[in-house]
Amino acid sequence: MSGKPIRVLVAKPGLDGHDRGAKVIAQALRDAGMEVIYTGLRQTPDQIIGAALQEDVAVVALSCLSGAHMHLFPAVVEGLRKQNAGDILVLGGGIIPDEDIPELKNKGISEIFTPGTSTQTIIDYIEGKVANS
Amino acid sequence: MFDSDVLESIKEQGQKYNEKLKKLTAKRPERQPNFSTDSGIDINTVYTPEDIAGQSPNSFPGEYPYTRGVQPNMYRGRLWTMRQYAGFGTSEETNKRFRYLLDQGQTGLSVAFDLPTQIGYDSDDQLSMGEVGKVGVAIDSLLDMETLFDQIPLDKVSTSMTINSPAAILLAMYIAVAEKQGVKQEQLKGTIQNDILKEYVARGTYIFPPEHSMRLITDIFAYCAKNVPSWNTISISGYHIREAGSTAVQEVAFTLADGIAYVQAAIDAGLDVDEFAPRLSFFFNAHLNFFEEVTKFRAARRLWAKIMKERFGAKNPKSMMLRFHTQTAGCTLTAQQPDVNIMRVAYQALSAVLGGTQSLHTNSRDEALALPSDSSVLIALRTQQVIGYEIGAADTVDPLGGSYFIENLTNQIEQKAGEYISKIDDLGGAPKAIEFMQKEIHTSAYKYQKDIESGAKVVIGLNKFQMEEGRPKDLLRVDPLVGRRQADKLAKLRAERDNEKVQKLLKDIEGVAGTGENLMPYFIEAVKNYATLGEICGVLRGVFGEYQQQIVF
Hints:
heterodimer; A: 133 residues; alpha/beta; B: 553 residues; globular
């Protein structure tokens, strides 16, 4: 790892208000030495893309428990690509049915973390990906 | 409670016991260096009369301060209401699930609304895309509400509606549907959650700034006191505070602090405390730490009784009784080995029954994966029925009362929650202490997660006794076309209704929103004429503005 901390945007797309997981992960990433920005609730994909560009992050971590992930997650990846920011790593988490995961990955979400994932798993994943890229 | 000679003798025996214990544990250390509840209250090896010395004996059930229950004979008279929270897709689909549950012996309805409905957007709004019908049923207008309660007699069932920011409008729709069924307002029984403060603190489905939300709530209190006397006008909810990660002590403290704010707001609006307070109800979580949960309910009841009597000068005993619904803790369910969730739910449900709940929802085994399927919601309901009918748990009142441990823990939770309430009072009350509460909850949530990851807290299947397993195959999938169907239905509605009249009624609401006049009659008139939820909330957004969240973590 080089000296520069990894910048991560933790975002809650859609209308879902359950942000316990998002905040816990934000805190865990921060404790692991990353710079973390949390968007707060009810962000549209466009708002998330805007924040990611403005904050110049390496990673966008999306959290959704409402079932709207198929609509919201790919929209963020696509929007980033359109802004020539396709190199930003996009992760998803929440209550995501197994059968949705292959399609989300096809659409460019790098990894999906479902309930029960340890924060260390996510930290290791981000450090592995961002250091290797 | 015991005479001093007896206590003296117990003290001597206790000293001998402790010496013996010390030698034993020096040779053979205990499983953990220390034992404590989830709220961090130390647990002794054993409890004796010494641990409740100096406490006044408990009252009987049905008597102030109601530690042992709000009715004299509790479940010997009638079991708690078995009320499964349900709703998904369209009103047609949810109506089917309701009738299925009623056929299986459920005794009350509990409506889950989708997020656009909870946040006051119509299904065809841009912001509703992807969310329609997903976590609950989509309700745009009275038309949907009519379908939702089709063939369900509203004078016979009691209905709980989990709706907060736009609660007044959904209640207006319920009243309007009842009228169409020929049921009078005064016959209606049920609850609207209507607890906006916990939305800012923990759950996030707010629309308006706190002061305007509080006004809508006091409008409901005043309207129902006169017109819908059997309706529970609010369900002050610790459930979501706990789901967001609070401890049991914080759950009691923050919920009652929110309750204090509502009572104060209503008094400030000119209502008499004994006029509205009997219709206040509460909603708690039943989490995993069994004895702490049982005592949490007992402590909450005692604390609220004292608050109502001593702080607000309530005279009517009904104003002092904390009646509550309980839901087992969704956040304790695991995606790993989902059948283990059936056991978790059963113990949580038992703690709620031993704690004296009036109404109960048991979660389904597959809820960490999806909305529950028919078969898993049936097991969840049967779990309640086993507790109610087979194991004898409902045959005497407060069966754990008098246990040295239970009484000691009840006292400690009451005391610690009381300290939090004083702190919130110092901050100017719950509406001003939103960020303080958020921070406390987040700190607890983070600690809980760290304890799981370090193994200090065991979660079967997750960090101990793991196994390779496939996911269940029969998970419920909401039809992806529901959003489309709702949008078509809305287009047809807007084409067929008397739009001139709807516009006039929306203008009336806009005018009254800026005054102190009660909005309820205007909402009822507007929904009867098929003004949509999104249209009415849009008008209110224009007058009240929208709440801007402060980000705290």
